[in-house]
């Protein structure tokens, strides 16, 4: 089994599907180029049958983005599969991603199909998709709430019909790391598939466990994970790409697998997404949030100034960020003030430092974060009063 984890990015499909994150075709193309620079393996560019705009976005990405495989989602319907194939026709490498709900609640209430009818749809739709693409992914929607033996049967049928990736989505973000580990371990022996067919995990974040669940699935044999930049996606979102990639890299001692991602492009992809969707990630968002490499507390700043590893487990430059990590605010200490003032051309010591520090604390109490412009004004004011 290969130690390489494929990154299937669904920022432009599951991500874009979420309220507040819709993107124009131009914005999708910019984002797709950022994802290609990041070296994701697959870009799910949209759901071609969903709307003419989505079909156009998939076709535009397929035509203009080199490197990753370009995928379109399709229900297990002939019309959807033909729409996906048409939108993907100019892609150098294409994937048709066919899905159908397999859980009892989806079969009974959404699809109104029997167990056998669902299996038959899997058989015929995957086989049809294979007529248009060598690379076909099958997703058993709501796999986590599907009877295990039936899920294994559904995935075996998909593999026999030609699916090359078998995706096991936690559509409603219900599972836990222990449970998904057990499930993937079970599927590893219960599904009848060829050596080259890989398992994939697609986790939603309703309980805040999407990344943890994806990591557990990898430990149990999944060799593709589906994720989105900033973790955008239906409801609480998908597993976040940046967290998954950096967890695998930072804890390679534990996981022993890696992705092909160029992590130094993570900040660029994050900024492109923020611009494309008009939403900045939360300040405390792991990896890419404004606070992810920022230190305001005096004790932390003192440590960081000696050696960043005292309070950081990753280097900002590893994700393409350039920062000294020091945020000047009311919790900052004298070491940080002296260091920042020196960098700004105001070496401070003894009484001079005492005065500056007292004034700095007063300002910080008033305004919170003292940015470079405000700090410069304070230092210049002190200098002119001497
Ligand atoms: O969450 C889900 O089940 C999906 C599938 C279409 C893969 O997004
Ligand atoms: Zn999803």
Q: Which helices and strands appear, and what pairs or packs with what?
A:
Elements: E1 6-9, H1 11-17, H2 25-38, E2 42-46, H3 52-64, E3 69-75, H4 78-87, E4 94-101, H5 104-111, H6 115-132, E5 136-141, H7 148-161, E6 165-170, H8 177-190, E7 198-203, H9 210-219, E8 224-227, H10 241-250, H11 252-255, H12 266-277, H13 298-306, H14 334-343, H15 350-367, H16 372-384
Parallel strand pairs: 1-2, 1-8, 2-3, 3-4, 4-5, 5-6, 6-7, 7-8
Helix pairs in contact: 2-3, 2-12, 3-4, 4-6, 6-7, 7-8, 8-9, 9-10, 13-14, 15-16
Bound molecules: 3-methyl-2-oxobutanoic acid and zinc ion.
Zinc ion binds at residues 14, 169, 171, 202, 204, 233-234.
Q: What are the main properties of this structure?
A:
386 residues; alpha/beta; 8-stranded parallel barrel; 12% strand; elongated; binds 3-methyl-2-oxobutanoic acid; binds zinc ion
